[in-house]
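Database export, one record per block. Field names are fixed; values are copied verbatim from the stored entry.
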Amino acid sequence: MKPEQINTKQESTTHFGFEQVAVNDKVRKVAGVFDSVADQYDVMNDLMSLGVHRIWKRVAIEYCGLHSGHRVLDLAAGTGDLTKQQAKQVGSTGQVISSDINCNMLANGRRRLVDLGIIGNVDYAQANAEFLPFPDHHFNCVTIAFGLRNVTNKPAALAEMYRVLKPGGRLVVLEFSEVTLPPLKSFYDFYSFKILPTLGKVIANDADSYRYLAESIRMHPDQETLKTMIQEVGFERCDYTNMSAGIVAIHRGYKL
């Protein structure tokens, strides 16, 4: 299992990729990464995953179990891939809040969804997942896709997700994880640290941000560690599903 740094009042540093930085600096540095990549984010997602990220997200949506009238919080919503599908499923009587800590990502997502005609049941909130500005017991479902690994204090964020969920609500976390097929690991490392930064340089004119994204994946808790973290803040019936040989995993937990 990978150790996950849990920030306490005594700790002054945390990881930013493979680099140790001051805790207070991580939010600023992560913001810089996503400010840089926001305009090419969708293009890079398709290139990096050869389009497979769309399948991963479709499965995550199925795990949400949404119905008409549900209230959903989509954290680290980015350009709105999950929000788009959630809005369709909850219908005109439901509500989706598309939330991201980065204003450029949130603005790009809002423009994209409005252009698609998805309006009326979607609201937008710039928020830090560690300090959610929503009442207790409010949402039927909370999702976070490819965003948890960028959060400084993951246990604090998971506890906030638990707080804002209604009893019976569920958490769905879609995130890069640990490859489960040993023969694939060496190729995946080569792709992550050699190919990915090169793509970032060519497409987004930013190799460093995509190097950080590769490093952040390696620093993220593995499947079992994350499951334990989710359980420790109060979630029950926790499980996870590996996809693409563990390149990504979907974790679920319920507030009972």
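Remark 1: The first strand starts at residue 13 and ends at 16.
Remark 2: The two ends are 27 Å apart (CA to CA).
End of record.
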